[in-house]
């Protein structure tokens, strides 16, 4: 395995993709069930709405007649409406015949009183017929209001149920997307975490043993100073790490002291520096300079 393999997230990416696929399958099944549920809601609420709609149609016909009777429909012929009511003409004919028979029996058939009696009869019957008809139409108002309330209730209920369904599905979609994002984030971070642990373990504390210092593993390399023995100290970042480090370059140390460098540290194929050995001369020179 090459050193850069520790930065690979292939396994984590595969696991994340498996999790994402499972989330997608689960949400797809859930979405189908939500669709079936909304279809069932539409069917059942339509069945519940039907009797209210029928009642409203019947009641509306009655309220339309009442509007005509009350003069709320200027285009309506109220007189014609009343005259065509069932039983009105029969009652009028029967009343007129009674008046005529009574007048004939008393010998007053051809008197002016006959016309007066017939007029009074017609007016009285018309008034009675008007109020009777108005009373008969009154229940249609209540029926229309009741049916309208029922229609509104059914539609409101359906709207609320559909709203709840879409909100719940929306939350499920959000949860699925969040789960996918988390899975991908974990996969992306896994390689960095792993590589950081391995690098940290390999570096150790300066002077405690070998630490990776191969120039091929570093970015943003720049010299920042020298040790007492003239070795250049560099500032750099290990590839894939955001943190900056200070240290030596293994290739340069190897040119000065091959025994202070491991060419295949931890089996990675990359160079590591034994910092205690590589800096021992600089440490001694420092002691002498300070003592002088």
Q: Secondary-structure map with pairings?
A:
Layout: H1 10-69, H2 78-83, H3 88-105, H4 112-203, E1 210-212, E2 218-226, E3 232-238, E4 244-247, H5 250-256, E5 261-262, E6 272-274, H6 275-278, H7 280-291
Antiparallel strand pairs: 1-6, 2-3, 3-4, 5-6
Detailed description of the structure:
The chain has helices spanning 10-69, 78-83, 88-105, 112-203, 250-256, 275-278, 280-291, and strands at residues 210-212, 218-226, 232-238, 244-247, 261-262, 272-274. It is mainly alpha-helical. The chain has two domains: 3-193; 204-291, no CATH class. The strands form two sheets. It has a three-stranded antiparallel sheet with strand order 1-6-5. A three-stranded antiparallel sheet has the order 2-3-4, with no helix packed on it. A hairpin with a 5-residue loop joins β3 (232-238) and β4 (244-247). α1 (10-69) runs antiparallel to α4 and α3 runs antiparallel to α4 (112-203). The protein starts with 9 loop residues before the first helix and ends with a helix. The relative contact order is 0.11.
